[in-house]
# Entry
Amino acid sequence: MTTADGTAGSGGGGTLDVFARRPKRADARRNYEKLLAAAREAFAEAGVSASLEDIARRAGVGIGTLYRHFPTRQDLFESVYVDEVEALCRAADELAGLPPWDALAGWLRRFVTYTATKRAIAEALNHDSSVFATCRKAINTAGEPLLRRAQDSGAARPEASFDDVLRLVGGVTMYPFADPVQLERVLTMALDGIRVRPAAG
# Structure
């Protein structure tokens, strides 16, 4: 939920609107975004044990500013997660104008980025929370139409469910890749497992 001064409060139950957490004021919003970027970087390097003081230092703000936006460590985990989900949902809209396969493949590449961030903090996320449930629904709402469109055009395997596709592509990030070339090669192989290519002739 969002507090009166526009900072993010602790997630409650019920119909929590996780996409309304960003502060309204420009200065507070800038600090919020810097803290999210710093937290994402720190969690990728050190996992969930990353120091909050280090995150504040990376963002160029005081520890008090961090706590005003994220009163608990769980609030910070969830906000980083929500930020990635928001980017994933925006990507679906941005890619919708492309040819069906290009739109789906482009979105699934973004999904790999999201999955890599989620894995860094997965052990700390409360998978039973309303935040997690709402984000999962938002991902499905954003991505499923891209798959259906690709299937309707004959570019994607008709028997593949959206869950099938997410499991296949998400599995690419099961183990970290030190070599981005290898990551791209493995991801391309996964996408080829979904794609239907026109018959030669």
